[in-house]
Design goal:
The protein is of the alpha/beta class and about 290 residues long. The protein has a 5-stranded parallel sheet, sandwiched between helices.
C-alpha cells in the first residue's frame, strides 16, 4: 500500500516496532530530524543512520513509498500538513492568540486523525466485553491517571460496577483479586510504563480481559486482548501529554456511549433518574425579561 503524504510520519512511527534493526535506525533518524532528511542525499542519510544505502531504500518501501525520492517528497508534504504539539514552532514572545491557536489546531488535527484511523472492530469488541463485564477497572498513571478517573466518572452511571486506580500498588493488588468476567481498561500513551505493564500482567494471569487504549505495537498493546490504537506523534518523554490525552478522553466517551446504547431503555431510565437527582443541587436559571 502506498502511503499518502499526510500520514507518512504516522506510518513511520507505527511501523517502527516491526522494522528490522537497521531499518529502525533510519526510522529514528526520520522521526528525530525530519526537516534535515527532506534535503539530504541518500548517501548522507545512510551515513547518519549508520546503515547502507540499500537499507535506506528498503526502509522507504517498508513505510509505503516507492523509493527514496518519493519518501522525501511525502515527508515534506506530511510536515507541511501536520505539526505534533511538542514540535509546534512557537516563539518565546508569542501572544495568546498565537499559542492558543497552535494548541487548538493541534488538538483538532489529532481528533480528526483519530476519527479517520479508529479501529471500528476493536471498539465493537471492547464494547462487547464492557457490556458483559462483572466489574470494570480503569488503570492509568500520570496524565493517563486523570483519563482513568474520567472513565470512572462516565461509567459509574452505567449498570456495571467500576473503579479507577492511578496508584501502581493499588492497581497490582486489585488486579490480583480480579477474575474471569472482569475487565481492566489500561490507558497509556506510550504503552511502556513498567508499573502499568506489571499491573496488566497480574490481571492477565487472573484470567481478566485486558482492553488497552495505547499506541499500536507497544508492550501494553501486546498484553491486551483488545487494543484501541491511539497513535499520536507526541513526545511525552519530554513533554506533558496534551493532544494524546484529549484523544484518550474521546475514546473513553465513545466506549461509554457504546455501552449505554447496549443497555437500552433500562440504562436510559437510570441516567434520567441520576440527572433528576441533581436538580436540587443547581441554582435555577434566571428568566430574562425582554425590554
Amino acid at each position: 500500500m502506498i502511503a499518502t503524504p499526510a500520514d507518512l510520519l504516522k506510518r513511520v512511527r507505527d511501523r517502527s516496532p516491526t522494522l528490522s534493526p537497521s531499518e529502525r535506525r533510519v526510522a529514528e533518524l526520520a522521526l528525530g530530524r525530519p526537516d534535515e532528511l527532506i534535503y539530504a542525499p541518500l548517501a548522507v542519510v545512510a551515513r547518519q543512520a549508520g546503515v547502507s544505502e540499500p537499507t535506506v531504500v528498503r526502509f522507504c518501501r517498508s513505510v509505503g513509498c516507492t523509493g527514496f525520492q518519493d519518501f522525501k517528497l511525502q515527508l515534506a508534504q506530511s510536515m507541511a500538513s501536520h505539526f505534533p504539539y511538542a514540535d509546534l514552532p512557537i516563539d518565546a514572545d508569542a501572544g495568546v492568540v498565537d499559542y492558543a491557536t497552535k494548541v487548538f489546531d493541534a488538538t483538532l488535527d489529532t481528533l480528526v486523525r483519530l476519527r479517520r484511523d479508529l479501529d471500528v472492530a476493536a471498539v465493537e469488541a471492547a464494547v462487547e466485553y464492557l457490556t458483559a463485564a462483572r466489574k470494570i477497572e480503569f488503570y492509568g498513571l500520570g496524565a493517563s491517571g486523570s483519563v482513568a478517573q474520567d472513565a470512572q466518572h462516565k461509567f459509574f452511571r452505567l449498570p456495571v460496577p467500576c473503579v479507577s486506580y492511578s496508584d501502581p500498588h493499588m492497581q497490582t493488588m486489585s488486579a490480583a483479586a480480579l477474575g474471569q468476567g472482569d475487565v481492566v481498561v489500561a490507558i497509556s500513551h506510550t504503552g511502556r510504563t513498567r508499573e502499568l505493564l506489571e499491573s496488566a500482567e497480574v490481571a492477565r494471569r487472573s484470567s481478566t480481559t485486558i482492553i488497552a487504549i495505547t499506541s499500536a505495537g507497544s508492550p501494553l498493546a501486546a498484553l491486551a486482548d483488545v487494543t484501541i490504537a491511539v497513535n499520536v506523534p507526541e513526545d511525552t518523554d519530554l513533554y506533558t501529554p496534551m493532544t494524546s490525552r484529549m484523544a484518550h478522553l474521546a475514546v473513553v466517551d465513545v466506549l461509554a456511549l457504546g455501552v449505554a446504547l447496549r443497555g437500552g431503555r433500562g440504562t436510559a431510565d437510570r441516567l434520567r433518574r441520576m440527572k433528576e437527582s441533581l436538580a436540587s443541587k443547581r441554582v435555577p436559571k434566571k428568566n430574562r425579561s425582554r425590554s
